[in-house]
Every structure is written in C-alpha cells, then in structure tokens.
C-alpha cells in the first residue's frame, strides 16, 4: 500500500500499476493543485483536448465556466465528490465539447484535486435524437403563430409594390436629393422584407411546421458564397475579415445549405453591425463523427462592443435585445438569434456566446450533418489535406489582437488618433461621393473612438454627426474641418507637453 501522506503525483510515481491503469483509462483523468496548475493528464485527456503535454496548462483553460482565478486564487464553481455533472471542456484550438465529470479532493492531501470526465458528445447527440422524435409526435398548432403567418403574408404584397415603384422612379429621377430619398424608401422596403422573412421563419418554428430540406452540397463553395456576401462591406468599414476552414472538414456533406447560410449571415451581420475597429473571423473545424454523421463546429469572432455577462441570456430569446437603446441605435427585431438557435437545434446542435464588454464577442455553434455515400453504399469522407489550400484554425488568429484594439479605443493613444484620421478621411470621401449611408457609418465609428475625448472634441463630433444625418454637405464639411482642427490642436499640445 502507498502511504496516505504522499501526494497524488508521488503516489502515481510509486505505484506503477496505478499509473498504468490511469494512463490507459477510457476516460479523461486530470490532477491539479489548489492554484489550478495541472500536475498530470492521462493519454485520453491529451487526445481529447489536443495537447501533447498539459503540465504547463491551467485548469481554467480546460473548464473556464467551472474554474476561475480571482485575486490569484482558484475559485471552484462546480460540485466536489461523487456528484456527476455536465461541463464544457475546451480543446487547445478553442473549440469545446460536453463532458460528464466528477471532481474529487484528495483525502490524503487536500491541496490536490482529481478530475475524471467522459466525452458526452455521442451521448448528447443520441439524447437529442430521442427528444426530437418525441417532439415530432406532438404536432401542436399555435393560434398566435398562425395569426402572425397570415399577417406577414398580407404585408408582403404592398411592401413589394412600394419597392418596385421606388426602383422604377429611381431609374427615371435625376435630382440627387430625390434619388437619395428614393434609395431610403428602397432600403426601408428591403429591411421590411427581411423582418417579414424573420417573422415567417419564427412563426413556422413556433408552430412546429418548419422542416429542413437536406441535400448534398459542396461545403467550401457554400462558405466562399458567405464570404463573398460579407467581404466588401466588412472591409469597406475598415475591418479585417478572415475565413478559415480546417483541413479535416469534408468537402461534400448532406444538410440544409440554405439554413446554414442563414445562420452564418445572421451572425456575421451582427458582428459587422457591432464592430467598428479590429477584425471579424469565421472559423470551421470538424470535431466529431458518429457513423455517417459528422459534427462541424463554427466560430464567429469579432472585436466589437461586446456584451455584459448578465445580458447574454437575453440574446437567444424571441423579440429580445440587450437593451432598448441597442434596438434604437442598431435596429433589428430581436428575432435573428432566436431563429439561429432554433435552426441549430433542428440540426442536433447548440449555440453559445462568449463575450466581454469592450473586447468583442465569440458566437460558436455546432451542427450534425450527414456524409454522402458512394454507389456501393460506403461512406465517402472526402477531406482536403492540401496545406496550401486551407490554413489550420490555430494559425488563423492573425490581425489586431484584443490588446491592440484596446489601445485603439483609448482616446489620445497613437493607435486611436491614427484610426480617427483614417476614418475621417473615409468619411470625407463618402460625403464627396454623396454616399450618406457610408458617411453615417464612419461617423458612428469616429464617435466611438472619441467617447473619452475632451468636451471640445466631443462637441465638434456631435455637430459633425448632426450634419451627416441631415445630409447637409456644407455643414458636414465645415464640422469635419472643425473636428480636424480640434484634433490637430490637441496633438500639438500633447507633443509640446
């Protein structure tokens, strides 16, 4: 017997039989100390988490929701002992997967903790399949959803009529002011159609009438289509845009391509809407396979305004946004993310958000798709392995990091002033081209960059914003010059000091 006074790591060194058993266990085993440093990880843990060695890692990197560091000490937010609990384990490449875990405190040495966890991906997948089968038997119609569906169908006809007439008038009109008003009408009708589509999708989902239409499609072509749709407007806003697909992702899959595009469009549009500085990234990796079904994990990462932890639960609820001011400022019905959540769940997956105010957001979701079969019935798992064609997800995280973005947000820093000058130049060019929509976009970015500026600069910024909103060329250029003069005066004063 090993002396009870020895630590967990010493015990394994002394007892080769115990070490052999733990190393070859079918579940993940981790030992860590009271500061959270991982002392030992068995082979299963290294394989599941994607590490060659976990000894230099911290338990908060693996289970960030259950373990946190506060004031230099480890805070445990999960149960200890025989209680089996659901947790999310994070791999080295920042994707996560569900586990069923038990956390023990070493009785002989209380400063040592043991974690034993099983990968619950397949189990959860089978549970979701059973739940879905039960739900399909319930086929209940909801009066509210039927009413909403009928009303939105009736709305579509007059909206499309207004849109068509506005477009015809825009082709005949030569006056710039009237053309601008017609473009606003056209934009309003397009927004209304988008709202109608969202409400129709929502009503179908609520009534249980929504069905997926799976078919075989080229996955990379689909992602290229999404990238093309968003690339121009993102880069025009002065943001970097990165798209990465892991080499392990199959080339062809079977699923509802239209609805996957809808989810990605919604998440990327939100990232674009709430990000003024930095970058937006879309990443896709393959994380699991059960027979002829494959799990794909998507991450949409931005360096935008971020969302407070207490507000994050609101986002996936129907007709809900973070706040009324957000709705007024950025628009939207509050249905998009709720629809995304329901669509993801129809594909046997789940969606989650990791965000921090001022440091951006990461929306991640996983879905299950089928792999196509050859004529002889064998499963075709076509994987692109050319390293020149696709970059690995870990190599993807280029562009400005959180620290750089934080430097840009802080008024008066060199990066902040440089970004303001760049956006003011683009604002001036947009006004010269009478593209007031883009001018408003750059104006809002400058406003965010000058939030902590002295009163004189904030006042000049307010006058510029009012002039841009009115579409007044003379006042806009005068306010632009006034703001530029105030910034130059501040810069000169700072240099002299």
Tell me about this structure:
- The chain is built from 16 helices and 14 strands.
- The model is unreliable at 1-6 and 380-402 (pLDDT under 50).
- It is α+β, with helices and mostly antiparallel strands.
- It is globular, with a radius of gyration of 27 Å.
- It folds into four domains: 8-119, 2-Layer Sandwich (Beta-Lactamase), CATH 3.30.450; 143-207; 215-401, Histidine kinase-like ATPase, C-terminal domain (Heat Shock Protein 90); 410-496.
- A hairpin with a 2-residue loop joins strand 11 and strand 12 (293-302).
- Helix 7 (176-207) packs across helix 11 (336-346) and helix 9 (257-273) packs antiparallel against helix 11 (336-346).
- It has helices at residues 8-14, 16-23, 43-49, 59-62, 121-136, 143-172, 176-207, 219-236, 257-273, 324-330, 336-346, 402-409, 414-432, 436-449, 455-470, 473-496, and strands spanning 28-33, 38-41, 67-70, 73-76, 85-90, 96-105, 112-119, 215-218, 240-245, 252-255, 279-290, 293-302, 350-355, 361-370.
- Strands 2-1-7-6-5 form a five-stranded antiparallel β-sheet. A five-stranded mixed β-sheet has the order 9-11-12-14-13, covered by helices on one side. It has a two-stranded antiparallel sheet with strand order 3-4.
